[in-house]
């Protein structure tokens, strides 16, 4: 099956806004113009019908499998339906009831759904009657994440009731016998190494309990509340038929996630009846059922109906404690694929609370506030609850003052410690003209409240921008805001103002605070529909299909984490029986599309066929990637063989990938880990300039036709792979990138055998270089040496004779090119003696006498090169300066591009160049280019091609997706 995917694109933004600190989040800062220009899927295009034009133009999968004579296992995989249709096996129907618990930092809640409800409407989800927040009238589908525990380590109350009871105990001076915990969830993420008995301090910070007791009791309270409520609606509930779904942030480490699971088991949930759901994934599954155009309607469609297959969308889950952000891709009508590793930080609603506390401390001082919090916990809890009510209604354009009731205890403690009450203290601060008083209330300017939200909003906006400036991020067309903090009108308007545009929709479903609960229930039933999660990868196979060489390797997660620089590579039979990591990018087939051979074997076989008199016609394709670059974007691209025959590019790519899969299958069998091939994620490399072309889509479709499901495929640009290679080898440290200012440029010069590419990466944060915003390419590979020398021959003999030589003696011609390129590797700048080059003088003599009636030697002597080239019997004696001139054309081009960008301000003197690829190993190239770059102030690091940087970097990318 071929699916018309959204066209991947490399971001070309130059220096980004994300690299600079936002001066004020409330200013009308428009989203980066450049970012908008790079969007490849416009919002209006989301309403178009997806067309598939590959399927009709290619043979059926089963036909290809039989023609290519693949193994039974690979052939059977080719016949699998893509995409998988919904069936009963994708749902957990052993459970008649699913209950999802969203254990949040600030608020917690639950929802439930019976199987019959799910079958009629997946989004028919029930919630308990709205929790009542007591005196503050906080009616909500969630309750406060607070728990009151007595001295016997038993739960007294949970939620709003716990807050009210604790306030009562404080008034009666009995609170010392109890433990009161609030906003304690984030302690798990803060702890780098979790021990089963680690302690949590309560709100007074003077008493502690084991965290496992606190968490398990809290989960147990929610569990029992849910069961009691549901049994009041439907009697005779069989608890063994309940599937519990517990949500956790996706950015949590494995220890924290496992801790929550253990706490749930301790709370009475059977391990086999429990599933952990990552919060942004849950939100993504909920939003799949919401039509894009009417997210606030109550009639749900069966899927993310208005979004075409291939759409990438970002889920921004803003909770009480964290911002959890991930990119998903719709790969068919029901399934989604995780594209980016979840990321985020502690940028939730509690950060606003923390800023409010800092604001009060700036007025009364840390000592006064600490005494108030410890000695008057009831007043403190009521004060923070009062703030919670007010912060929900803060908007960026709000002009009215915010009225907050001041605790009398705070003012009394302030007078006792400083001799002045709260009102008198304010007059001596910078807030004198921004806070007025009326009785026991403070009237606070909205500017102060803006300042509480701005630091949090800035961090969220900057992080989202950084993600959008990555290659995958540049394809995002929808941004879904979910989570309790997404209910904030301030945050909603800021996010919409920064990111809503012609190329992106910002969507906020109704009740975003319970989207996670809704999605967790759907996910619990349909978790198989999450086709791929970055963290689930146990094995990565990388296929680096270069312009003229290919290499393949695998790596397992445990081995990667131990040493990311080691890979298990496939070896190929090279010339003269030598085993090598590289296979030639060649395909040899007959007229009926039957495979003869691929790679090094195809090259050798074709040479023998050329020397024989066989009448059967063959199609021989070599260096076919170059043809793809030379043609305009078109999924129906045609490749031409050595004899000008035409075959669709997708068929050649498919055949070549089949070849790679067979080698991988053999490797797995040899290592005794064949079963892991089914769990492997495949990473394909592509030239950097493919980031803006349909060729990436073509490669992806060919891989699908070769039997790999779309969710198991990732394509990484070669420059991104080299970027990853540098990170795993800690080369950034050697480059002093960590000390370079934001905005510094790292230029990756990947000089292969046939072509060279310069990609310009920008430093976005300390120690990290991400995103290629500029790519240029040219004939800067080892082939430039043979091309340059053949140009010299053309000057001497004319184009017609040289082309005749190529046609009549293809094997000799290829050998000559290889000889020139290999000989050029040993040439040095200080070399004074001439270069001896083995040369087919006899063949050129024959052609010259027929065309010019004189020998090849006489033709050279009559040319402008008579003093630089001397002809012997089977070789040429060539002046070294001629080869130096060929090298100079390449080095001058590279230095010229770097200079151009430096003069335009794009490259600073403290920037860097990473030189890699087969041509970068040539001594002459390094001798000519390094001094010139040093003069420009560009530091250089060399990566030898035998280190396989692209291949190793591709495997690293497969595990990290960074």
TrEMBL record:
Annotated segments matching region Disordered: 1-37
Matches recorded under PANTHER family: ALPHA KINASE/ELONGATION FACTOR 2 KINASE, HEAT SHOCK 70 KDA PROTEIN 12A
Keyword Nucleotide-binding assigned: yes
Protein source organism: Potamilus streckersoni
Highest taxon listed in the record's lineage: Eukaryota
Bias-annotated ranges (Polar residues): 21-33
Identification of the protein by name: Heat shock 70 kDa protein 12A
Entries under CDD domains matching the protein: ASKHA_NBD_HSP70_HSPA12
Keywords, alphabetical: ATP-binding, Nucleotide-binding
Family: Belongs to the heat shock protein 70 family.
GO molecular function: ATP binding; ATP-dependent protein folding chaperone
InterPro entries: ATPase_NBD, Hsp_70_fam
